[in-house]
Design a protein that fits this description.
six-stranded mixed β-sheet; 10 helices; alpha/beta; about 260 residues; Beta-carbonic Anhydrase, Chain A
Length: about 260
């Protein structure tokens, strides 16, 4: 029995003692509370069982339809990996790079976070992001970096909602993180201040990708490889409302964008 169950039983016993000397109402109340507790425990157990079954069935499907059907692929991956892409994407559950672009196992090294952002190079901050970048770039020698923004991004909405009066944070981590894209927010507010908030967010989803592309060049191991032609940087925007995917090079102003639908 869990600690929660012990706490419940103890509370139930004390409640019974308080009510039992009053009238039979006490026994009725305790019985009803116990019944409610049992129902809640059963509901919690069912939810836990559902999650476990979903995980188990998902793995069985993967092993049956993929792992066992492609032994040569998975045998090779067991020995090493040689991805050609490093992909930055949002943590949003609707935006899975492997699903959207049909990447196969071993083809893309993925880094996902809120609003697909990369901070400026700083050894004293954001070491998690830096380490996640450094390994595929310097050890696996990926040849392409792709940053994917997406429609209806909650992180971008949070960024665009930040007031300029330095009001206290409304979140523990999110607001400080999305401020990485402040330059994108400022540009959209300045150039498109007459548009609706929703329209501004849509534009900022793409502009924030450009900020991330620029920030990537602040990392010495990225800039060096880009300058030597060993690493290409691209931005993209996935619109899951209309089912389109827009792709552009490092500077969206000087290179054409390609839209797939």
């Amino acid at each position: 029995m869990s600690t929660e169950s012990y706490d419940y039983e103890d509370a139930l016993e004390r409640l019974g003692e308080l009510l039992s000397d009053k009238s039979d109402i006490g026994n009725v109340a305790v019985a009803k509370i116990k019944k409610l507790f049992c129902e809640l425990e059963e509901h919690k157990s069912n939810k836990s069982s559902d999650a476990k079954e979903r995980i188990q069935s998902g793995f069985i499907h993967f092993k049956t339809h993929k792992f066992l059907k492609k032994p040569s692929l998975y045998n090779a991956l067991a020995k090493s990996q040689d991805p050609k892409f490093l992909v930055f994407a949002c943590s949003d559950s609707r935006v899975s790079p492997a699903h959207i672009l049909n990447f196969q196992p071993g083809e893309a090294f993925e880094i996902r976070n809120i609003a697909n952002m990369v901070p400026l190079f700083d050894k004293t901050q954001h070491s998690g992001t830096g380490a996640a970048m450094e390994y595929p770039i310097t050890k696996l020698n990926v040849e392409n970096i792709l940053v994917i923004g997406h429609s209806r991004c909650g992180g971008i909405e949070a960024l665009m909602s930040i007031e300029d009066d330095a009001a206290p944070n409304k979140s523990i981590f999110i607001e400080d993180w999305v401020k990485i894209g402040t330059a994108a927010k400022n540009r959209i507010k300045q150039d498109f201040g007459d548009l609706s908030f929703e329209e501004q967010c849509s534009l900022c989803e793409k502009e924030a990708v450009n900020v991330t592309l620029a920030n990537l060049l602040s990392y010495p191991f990225v800039r060096e490889r880009v300058e030597k032609g060993k690493l290409a940087l691209r931005g993209a925007h996935y619109d899951f409302v209309n089912g389109t995917f827009e792709l552009w090079e490092l500077d969206v102003k000087t290179t054409p964008a390609y839209t797939f639908s």
